[in-house]
Specification:
Elements lengths: L1 E9 L2 E10 L4 H8 L2 H4 L3 E12 L1 H16 L3 E5 L3 H9 L7 E3 L1
Parallel strand pairs: 2-3, 3-4, 4-5
Antiparallel strand pairs: 1-2
Helix pairs in contact: 1-3
């Protein structure tokens, strides 16, 4: 089960709060939100992962896709407040150098 909540915090800036597991069953819901017309207008998207307890490769693929979309329009994707077990997945895949990750 995954819960999503998004909020626009400033002009062209949004925060997406994710809670639960991001896996092959739930990542399409996150992908749909990230591809929504509102999200597509944003230049800066922060994904708050403080409530995420598990993420598999489909969740990572969804975030990589959003990173590519934002980078193409000179935007930023920030991943915020990862739990150690989620951050470990990014470290193993050598993605901590690819993504902007903040506490």
């Amino acid at each position: 089960m995954m819960e999503l909540r998004s909020e626009v915090t400033a002009l062209e800036e949004a925060v997406i709060h994710v809670k639960g597991e991001i896996d092959m069953n739930t990542s399409p819901k996150l992908r749909d939100l990230l591809k929504s017309s509102e999200a597509q207008r944003m230049k800066k998207v922060t994904v708050d992962l403080s409530g995420v307890t598990y993420m598999d490769s489909s969740g990572i693929a969804t975030l990589v896709e959003m990173l590519q979309t934002l980078t193409a329009k000179k935007g930023r994707l920030i991943l915020k407040a990862m739990k150690p077990e989620v951050k470990a997945v990014f470290e193993i895949a050598h993605l901590t150098e690819v993504f902007e990750i903040v506490d």
